Amino acid sequence: MIKISSDVLEYEFQHHINVIGGYKSTGEKSGVYKTALYAVLEAANINSRLKSNIPLVFLDNTTVLPQIHVTNEVCYIIDELNFSPNNFNDFFGKLKKVNGFAIVIGRMKIKQINYSVDAIYVLDNTSPPFKLSKAFVNINKHAYIDNDIYITEDSKSIAEYYTEKTGYSFCAASGKDRIYKYLKHKKSPFVIADNPKFGNILLDIIERRDNLETLDLFLPACFEEFMLSSDFNVDDVKKHIKDNIQLNQVDGETYCESLLLAHCGNIYSKSNISEYINCIKNGIKCGLCDVKIEHSALFTLLLEHLAHKKEYSYIGSKSICYTLFRKDFKKFTEDNSSISNNLFSDINIENGVKMEEK
After folding, report:
1. Residue 201 CB: number of other CB atoms within 10 A?
2. Mean pLDDT across the stretch 263-267?
3. Do 122 and 37 form a contact (C-beta atoms < 8 A)?
4. What is the C-alpha radius of gyration for the chain, rounded to an integer number of angstroms?
5. d(CA 4, CA 242)
């Protein structure tokens, strides 16, 4: 968690990696007011008007990035547009290793890093104090939708498992980057994907697939989270899955995989998931666990989302179910370049306040 308090921005970020786009947009085309947010935050920090529960380090120079000793004891505030792709890749590779913290202010669709769908933010206003809101909000009710394809980013064995357990025919994309091709000529797909690494993929789908009318998403941390929340009588597993704190780290998927490996090391292997699925379906191996996906609150939620129930039974801190409509796509793809972006005439950067018109 990163808690920032100041006269220019006050917000509590739940994830380790957070991305802030432009004013009511991804910032893909116009970059409106993103630089202003970075500038006023940095000025507030210099003038000791910015408080945080973790020390903040501001980065806006690509030449110094490779020399930084990356640690999880600070939060990096990054002006993304000033960084080269190679340096970005290297920096976030180091950040993942230490499970560090970062807030990236710039384009939302950043291919060099992984981030959760519910860690994407937009600016709600154009002058300090700035207000943020999540770009995508989970839903708890919606009208009936007739989905025309069911996709999981996982392998064929997992797709077959979902098909058997839900009664809906899932196809396997075998990778989040491959989901896009399955959406061609589809109007209302239903997609199961791993939330911690799906943020930039979702933005890419919204930008490039204008044939979509709706998009249903079911976004757990990963397939392993289904297993962990099924029938493991292990307190630390249940606690972490329930409170979501550990799943919000840089790589929540790896966290779940390590937990499952610790409690089912005899059979579970990420590289041979089909053997593990065969075991949990038939109980033919060690007999140490009795995993039944039907016992999982996540599985119940999946069935409710597939059936488009108006009310969901799941109660938790995570955003898992999403239904996006065409109007949701448009607000992130429309060009906001008509909005004034003359930042330094509109905003007093040092004081972080709107200048009065002369």
Report:
1. 23
2. 75
3. no
4. 21
5. 25
